[in-house]
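Sequence, structure tokens reproduced for absentees:
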Amino acid sequence: MKHRDDDDDREKLSWREVDRMRDGSRHVSGGSKSYQERTLRSDWAKKQHLKKAEKFFQGRKGTDAYKAADAALHEKYGTPDFHEAAKNFLQQFGLPDEWGSLLLVLDFHDPKWVKEALAALKGMYQKRSLIEQRGFKGKVKVLVMTTADKEVRLEGEKILEDL
């Protein structure tokens, strides 16, 4: 077998240089991240996009101000500051959509908001658990007995008859 002379003239590449050339090649994929890393990143991005979309569709109720006002409403319940917190919440955001927050509005002193909360709670009544239904009935009974407003009392009595 004949030995080629031009092989001796050429300088041999080190393995490091060979690897570097291979990394720069267009024929070798550049994806050094594992499949698990890529899926974790895409799952995280998907969750972030869903959070933003959900926040967008909630409107004002998805804002930090709404969350803070709702938290203040729940924290100040049973304290002298409750009526002020409820007034601020209702002026800024209107009637809440959540069952627990609506129950708190029943203790507010403005009959207009109390009647609206009663109507909203009555609409949600069938979808609530038995314990929540009993709690609502008890709350309305106490409201009917203790309220000074005749319209609220009549509305409460009507609701109790319907339930």
Q: What stands out?
A: Residues 59-162 form one domain. Residues 115 and 140 are 11 Å apart (CA to CA). The mean pLDDT is 80. DSSP finds nine helices and no strands in the chain.
